[in-house]
Amino acid sequence: MRKDFGAKPWSYPQPVFIVAAYDEDEKPNAMNAAWGGISDTTQVSLCLSSNHRTVKNLQKTKAFTINIADTAHVLACDYIGLVSGNKVPDKVAKAGFTVTKSTFVNAPVINELAMALECKLIRYDSESGFLLGEIVNVSIDESVLTKDGKTDMTKFEPIVFDPVNAVYRKLGEKVGKAFKDGRILIDRIEKEQEIMEAEEIFENLEDLETEESEEMKEIEEEIKEVDEILENIEALNKEEKTKHK
Fold this sequence. Notes:
three-stranded antiparallel beta sheet, 2 domains, Pnp Oxidase, Chain A
């Protein structure tokens, strides 16, 4: 049985994005954002209130980065979300973060967070808070990469936001292979369909055999009737011959 909670901003998982941008003096500021995600192959969308210092900055520079929060920096990332850049201009440094300017966009990359999306601002609507950005580059620290260049989740340990319980959670173990495991179900359904089609064919053949059998019986009955008629005719002919003798 389900319980209704009404309209809530709940979904799983929600990301923990540390959005960073420079001001006009190239001083970095950042904010913690959960409402966002990939909206196209090279685009990201966010919902950010216009009163944030970071939002004001990125509208000026037309660039920003999305740094992925991880287990090792939970305190610093939550601090970034609690403290306003409008009141604490150097909150990035106070959080213990250092930055390096992106080589792709005019925005800071947080060195301590292993993964960053480096983006250009496409548009921002202050009334709705909707922001659309173009992903120019994704950079990942080699310390969290495997030998074949993929993310090692045991080293990366990104976190997600649990909006119902208001807690951060570490991403767990692998439970399946994307775009592959579902093939098992596809194959099973296809085989079941083939079996159903085969059974239908057999049923049709049985029906045909039954119909043919009934038709043969009818033909045999007709043949008997014809034979009886011929016998009767032959008998009559014999009688006629006998009478004439």
